[in-house]
Design goal:
The complex is a heterotrimer.
Chain A lengths: L1 H5 L14 H19 L35 H7 L1 H28 L2 H16 L2 H12 L3 H28 L2 H8 L4 H37 L11 H7 L9 H28 L11
Chain B lengths: L10 H4 L17 E2 L15 E6 L14 H7 L7 E5 L5 E5 L2 E6 L5 E6 L13 H12 L7 H6 L2 E8 L2 E6 L6 H5 L9 H11 L10 E7 L3 E6 L19 E6 L3 H10 L4 E3 L3 H10 L3 E7 L1 E7 L10 H10 L2 H8 L5 E2 L13 H4 L6 H10 L3 E2 L5 E3 L2 E2 L1 E7 L5 H13 L3 E7 L1 H10 L7 E4 L6 H5 L16 H12 L3 H17 L3 E6 L1 E6 L3 E2 L2 E2 L5 E2 L4 E2 L1
Chain C lengths: L1 H28 L4 H6 L6 H10 L6 H13 L13 H36 L4 H15 L2 H15 L12 H30 L2 H9 L3 H23 L1 H14 L5 H10 L3 H29 L7
Helix pairs in contact in C: 1-13, 5-6, 5-8, 5-13, 6-8, 7-8, 7-11, 8-10, 9-10, 10-13, 11-12, 12-13
Classes of the chains: A mainly alpha, B alpha+beta, C mainly alpha.
Chain lengths: 290, 548, 307
């Protein structure tokens, strides 16, 4: 499926390698940073992100490591605090999509033929609507903010996940021991949970983690368009857009949020890749893409 | 997110939230009235193509049908009014003959008689005479045209009578004193009756044919409008230019993204960029590479309607405190880089009917604001927020995307914080915001309105516009409604101004609107652009524009 | 083959119907009155607003509106834009070429940059070239395209004046938007191709070709390109929604009058016919693209021809 094949592993076909110490360290540090950014950004930033000062449009340096914006707010602080909405939106969004996608895929994969056809068509309809439209309409009805972006990402990524899960489920169901279990009277639901779900776990984890990078990009694109957290609350996408007209004179307004997004996506992809290499080195869970 | 004067459609504007989108939809608050003086002097060469970048696309090219002031800016190049309204050399204003050589108004201002100019032809060769005037006005009131602005501006129209081929009468069912200002506004540019018949009421919007200095060549939807010189044009007012235009081609390029417009000006793709964000204007001026022309706005300045029906702003003392707490001068200087001028009343200084006294009612006085709030029973509490009966002094602010008020509102909020308010701001897409305003869930909103005649106050101050109109202050004052109606029936200009002064003073006393700044339409241009004139109702004219 | 196509088309019909319903529901969920949006800024009286509302049929119950919409659709009429009074079909059609050109060139950029980079990287895994190519592709995926676009315009257009910053119909004006939009996908292709090359290199026929001393590279390339074209095509086909979003943002930044920005404005101003028409057209495009992808995949690899 699109998202998964998009982030194809760096190495295919090689045997599982022991995770090196370097990888462990990086993963641990990243986890720590994420927790701090989510829970206590104030530990890193020394001023508040919305505190206005008279030091307007100051270049990076001195008291303001990343400079200040047009209302005198400290950009380093805004970059640190701005991580929260992005991380929450993308992580939660992927979580929602994973749960919903697995549920939908399981249901479609274990359903009788006609129900499967109906559900797959529903998934097709959902896939046909671009995430931007979903987000725009959501925002117009429910209002902008992190919640709307979470829902938009959830709704947009779910059908893709569901498709992959459905295909795997169908494949698994033909496996002998599942059929054997059914001969012995196990109901479909029990079969799902006891036999199918554990086998899907690996695939789901791989799918989910490789989607985080895309989710971060989508979340920041949406907030770049103004659909996310509203000013004066800090957010990378919002601040990037707000600083765009100052790019030729005060480049620091947009550049630091932009770099933050880049680093985050890099990290997300790196982690996704490591997990994929460790759990599923041959890329089996990625399916044929259909 | 992005702060900028309205009508600046940024990518956020296009996408409806935050830093602006709501692009081009009904944001007619654009028009600024001309400062009069030509933008620059210097020997201009004949020929050449002038490309101007505008912030939003037109809805139609038919001036009689459009709802956007921006469209009128462009249609002014293709159409002529009967009578122009231009700055006078003494700083005042005067009516100048256009397609009408002279006119008379009946004593009760319900019948207007125009004597028409001879020897004028439309771009399609049709001769101009009284039938064209009648066709134009009938077209505007024709339901099939679906006219937005023109129909409302025309008011109590009855009919157009042709007295002879070069004399025409426009008759109203009631006195309509504002008509002379309205008809100069561009909505009533005279259209070719042949074209109207040929293309139909809505088709004309894709094939506009007028008598103006430029004629329509092509329009690529959402991209650009291309016009070419009309070599037969010799009937322009002398103040603008009585000769055919210098330019060969005039192109209006739609660039919704603010940064995009400025980038294109810098790289030379545009010679004029309209409505750049204030910081880019400041940067352009500092670089010394560009000239600046500002056209003052006409109508209601940008500001925030205060909802009189929802606590705590249902208390007049609280509303007045808001008026005293905000320093418009600092707002304009700090946030808007001085591009616009601070506004203190419900009409801009250029608008007929403007009264300075109504603007003097309030001044920046936080001490007074504090005193009023104390008087109203709001005691200052911990954390700098006032409380009364356990409730915080909290305001719900709703803005619509692309209103240009995002950063200014942050400034307003910080001013209000200083006297003990707390506020939360939401930005909604335009349609959603309108619904919110009509249902009254806001304490402060965003607003601005273009109008060449003070009768526009009727659109947003009349009590009949609360449920499903533009009265977002939910102000219900029947005696004010009557005052406005009376003003429009008063034929004598001085008497009319006196009534409007009363109207404005009442509105300001009741503190239903927090004026912030007079939107000036800034045009940033390359130094080679010359010969631009402005009209009093906010248009830039290209009659004598040239490139040197 | 034809049975395959027929089956696919049959499956597409309920999807299209579902899309029309979703299109209708979604835009009607947006609060607000289109009449008021249209008339804001004009000197419209409340009476005018009410008139316009019933003119647009917005005071009828929703099922009547949906029935009318479907009826129109079946007659091939996508409705009339509230804002411009022009037919929606005409408005969409006039903006489609720009979007198609943009997304097409972005795909070209992705292929032209991504595939050679992938081949270079996979040819010598672990080498400096490989690490450099992988680094570039990693970065390409990570830099948000809207940020890249702003930087490119600042450096290459405003400062150096090598390219125009606005669309003027020329090929030059297409370069920056196509690159900023396509680079991310180039990165994806690089990794895909690189993985395939490494895999194929170890495969039987390449090794035997090498042993026989004949052009292992020619065979390698042919097999690689053929086998990675499936996942590449399916990737691109299923990225449809993302590509459109990216195109919309890029269009606004570079002043291109395309579908994306037009659609967005129409949603926020509740221009119902335009949004409905656009969702249907996009849905149709999606269905057709999927069908095309299925066909191509089926042609390239008969094993993939599933029901």
């Amino acid at each position: 499926m699109a998202i998964a094949t998009a982030t194809a592993p760096l190495l295919t076909g090689s045997p599982p390698r022991p995770r090196s110490l370097a990888t462990w360290v990086v993963l641990a540090v990243t986890a720590a940073v994420i927790i701090i950014l989510l829970a206590a950004p104030g530990l890193i930033a020394h001023t508040g992100p919305t505190a206005t000062t008279d030091d307007i449009l100051a270049p990076p340096g001195g008291a303001h490591w990343f400079g200040t914006d047009q209302l005198g707010r400290d950009i380093f602080s805004r970059t640190v605090f701005g991580a929260r909405p992005v991380l929450v939106a993308s992580l939660l969004g992927v979580l929602v999509a994973t749960v919903a996608g697995v549920a939908l895929g399981l249901a479609a994969g274990t359903a009788p033929r006609w129900l499967n056809a109906v559900l797959m068509r529903v998934i097709d309809v959902l896939l046909a609507i671009p995430v931007l439209m979903i987000a725009l309409i959501l925002i117009a009805t429910a209002g902008s903010g992190v919640a709307s972006i979470v829902i938009a990402i959830g709704v947009a990524f779910t059908p893709g996940f569901a498709r992959v899960v459905e295909a795997s489920v169908r494949k698994l169901r033909s496996v002998e021991y599942v059929q054997a279990a059914r001969v012995f009277g196990a109901t479909s639901a029990r079969t799902s949970v006891r036999h199918l779900l554990p086998n899907l776990m690996t695939e789901v984890i791989v799918l989910g983690t490789s989607a985080v990078g895309w989710a971060v990009l989508t979340a920041t694109t949406l907030s770049f368009l103004g659909l996310g957290v509203q000013l004066p609350q800090p957010d990378w996408g919002t601040d990037l857009a707000a600083g765009a007209t100052y790019l030729s004179t005060s480049w620091w307004l947009s550049t630091f949020p932009g770099l933050a997004i880049t680093v985050t996506i890099l990290a997300a992809n790196f982690i996704g890749d490591s997990l994929m290499t460790a759990l599923d080195p041959r890329g089996e869970s990625l399916g044929s893409g259909r | 997110m992005t702060d900028r004067s309205p009508q600046i459609v940024s990518r956020r504007q296009v996408f409806g939230i935050g830093a602006g989108v709501a692009a081009g939809i009904g944001l007619a608050a654009c028009g600024s009235s001309g400062g009069g003086a030509p933008a620059a002097s210097g020997p201009a060469k004949s020929g050449g193509t002038l490309t101007m970048g505008i912030a939003s696309p037109p809805d139609t090219l038919d001036p009689g049908a459009t709802g956007l002031a921006l469209t009128l800016l462009m249609s002014m190049a293709m159409f002529d009014p009967l009578v122009w309204w231009l700055p006078a050399s003494d700083g005042g204003s005067k009516f100048v003959p256009g397609l009408a050589e002279s006119y008379t108004v009946s004593p009760d201002a319900s019948v207007y008689t125009f004597k028409l100019r001879k020897g004028v032809t439309f771009h399609d060769g049709t001769k101009f005479d009284a039938t064209a005037v009648k066709a134009t006005y009938d077209h505007i009131v024709d339901p099939a045209t679906k006219s937005k602005s023109g129909l409302g501006a025309l008011g109590p129209y009855k009919e157009t009578k042709i007295l002879d081929p070069y004399t025409v009468q426009i008759i109203f069912t009631e006195p309509n004193a504002g008509f002379m200002h309205q008809q100069a506004a561009g909505n009533f540019g005279i259209a070719s009756p042949t074209a109207l018949a040929k293309y139909g009421p809505t088709g004309f919007g894709n094939n506009p044919v007028g008598t103006g200095p430029f004629k329509f060549v092509s329009y690529a939807a959402g991209s650009q409008l291309a016009l070419a010189k009309n070599p037969a044009y010799t009937w322009g007012p002398t103040a603008l230019s009585a000769r055919p235009p210098l330019l060969d081609k005039l192109i209006f390029r739609i660039v919704t993204d603010d940064s995009g417009r400025y980038n294109a000006l810098q790289s030379g793709q545009l010679q004029i960029a309209m409505n750049l964000p204030p910081n880019d204007i400041a940067a352009a001026q500092k670089s010394g590479r560009f000239k600046q022309l500002t056209v003052e706005s006409i109508g209601t300045p940008l500001g925030m309607p205060i909802n009189v029906a929802k606590p705590p702003t249902d208390d007049p003392l609280v509303r007045q405190a808001i008026m005293y707490a905000v320093n418009q001068e600092v707002l304009v200087k700090q946030v808007l880089f001085g591009v616009d001028t601070p506004a203190h009343t419900v009409l801009t200084p250029i608008t007929p009917g403007y009264s300075k006294s109504s603007g003097d009612l309030y001044s920046y006085d936080p001490a007074k604001a504090n005193a009023l709030l104390d008087q109203a029973g709001w005691k200052m509490g911990a954390g700098g927020v006032r409380t009364k009966n356990g409730q915080k002094l909290a305001l719900d602010i709703i803005l619509f995307a692309d209103s240009g008020l995002e950063t200014p509102t942050e400034f307003v909020v910080s001013e209000l914080n200083k006297v003990g308010f707390t506020a939360s701001t939401t930005v909604q897409p335009f349609a959603t915001a309108q619904a919110s305003y009509n249902s009254g869930v806001h304490n402060l909103g965003a607003f601005g309105y273009y109008g060449t005649d003070p009768y526009l106050l009727n659109i947003w101050a009349n009590s009949d516009a609360i449920k499903s109109g533009f009265n977002w202050s939910h102000y219900d004052n029947p005696s004010l409604d009557a005052m406005i109606a009376k003003a429009n029936r008063t034929a004598d200009a001085t008497a009319r101004d006196a009534v409007y002064e009363q109207v404005c003073t009442t509105l300001m006393k009741d503190a239903v609107y927090l004026p912030l700044w007079n939107v000036n339409d800034p045009f940033t241009m390359a130094p080679g652009v010359t010969g631009l004139h402005t009209t009093l109702n906010g248009y830039l004219t290209f009659h004598s524009a040239g490139l040197s | 083959m034809w049975a395959f196509i027929a089956r696919r088309l049959a499956a597409a019909v309920p999807v299209m119907i579902g899309i029309t319903f979703v299109a209708f529901v979604l835009i009607h969920l947006v609060p607000g009155s289109p009449a008021k949006v249209i008339l804001y800024g004009s000197q419209a009286t409340p009476q005018q607003i009410a008139n316009l509302t019933s003119q647009l049929g917005l005071d009828q119950p929703w099922w009547e509106q949906y029935a009318r919409f479907l009826g129109q659709l079946l007659r091939g009429n996508l409705g009339t834009s509230y804002l411009t009074q022009t037919s929606v079909a005409h408005e969409l059609l006039s903006r489609t070429p720009s979007t198609l050109i943009l997304t097409g060139s972005a795909m070209v950029v992705a292929i032209v940059i991504g595939v050679p980079l992938g081949v270079l990287a996979g040819a010598r895994p672990g080498s400096f070239l490989d690490r450099a190519a992988r680094g570039v592709s990693f970065l390409g995926v990570a830099i948000p395209y809207f940020f890249l676009a702003l930087l490119l315009v600042l450096l290459l257009s405003v400062r150096l004046n090598w390219f125009p910053s606005l669309d003027d119909g020329s090929f030059r004006a297409l370069v920056l938007p196509a690159v900023s939009l396509g680079w991310g996908y180039a990165a994806i292709l690089t990794r895909l191709v690189r993985g395939r090359i490494i895999e194929e290199y170890r495969s039987e026929y390449v090794r035997s070709a090498k042993a026989r001393g004949c052009g292992e590279w020619r065979i390698l390339l042919r097999h690689t390109l053929r086998n990675s074209s499936i996942p590449a095509i399916t990737t691109i086909g299923l990225q449809f929604g993302n590509i459109l979003t990216g195109a919309a943002v890029t269009e606004v930044i570079f002043g291109r009058a395309g579908l994306g920005s037009y659609l967005a404005t129409s949603i926020t101003s509740k221009n119902i016919p335009v949004v409905q028409g656009a969702i249907i057209v996009i849905g149709l495009a999606y269905v057709l693209i999927n069908l095309a992808v299925d066909l191509i995949v089926g042609a390239v690899d008969p094993r993939a021809r599933v029901a």
